[in-house]
Amino acid sequence: MNDFNAFLTRSFAEAEQPADCGFSARVGAAVARREKAARVRSAIQLVGVSVGLAVAGYTLLGFVFGPGQEFLANTGLEAARAVGEFDRSAPQVAAQADQAAAGLIQSLGLGLTQILLIGGALLGGAVAYRSAQD
């Protein structure tokens, strides 16, 4: 620390209230202006986004109430046809799924027994080895 910095530190330490000649008030006013401008910009952006959403919603509403009704009706008919096809073939699909699940469970049951036996043997060997090391 040079002599000037030491002198400056001592000077402010001795002063009760250092005079800033309105500097703090000017800084506070500038900050307040910037915050007010930011609030105004935010409000303008919010209004702009709201107007854009309103226009987009009105356009979409026109589509739904105009040619959209025919589109929705055709889509509904196609969906009904698809559901009808699934209803006709559902019992066959359910029976096939049931057979596949039963076969999978049987396979897992046979293989799982051997896996558990091998895993138990390995674990028992590891415990015995650990006990022998201690």
- In round numbers, the mean pLDDT is 77
The total count of helices amounts to 3
Number of domains: 1
**Helical coverage, percent range:** over 70%
Please give the radius of gyration in angstroms.
40 Å
User: Largest beta sheet, briefly?
Assistant: none
- What does the overall shape look like? flat
Q: Summarize the helix and strand pattern as letters.
A: HHH
End-to-end separation in angstroms reads 64 Å
Low-confidence stretches: none
Question: What structural class do the secondary elements suggest?
Answer: mainly alpha
- Into which percentage range does the β-strand content fall? under 5%
Count every beta strand, where a strand is a DSSP E run of 2 or more residues.
0
Sum this structure up briefly.
The chain has 134 residues and is an all-alpha fold. It has 3 helices and no strands.
If you had to describe this structure to a student in words, what would you say it looks like?
The structure is a single chain. This protein has helices spanning 3-14, 23-65, 68-133. It is mainly alpha-helical and 134 residues long. It has one domain. 0% of the residues are buried.
Topology of helices and strands:
Elements: H1 3-14, H2 23-65, H3 68-133
Using brief descriptors, characterize the structure shown.
single chain, about 130 residues, mainly alpha, about 0% strand, flat
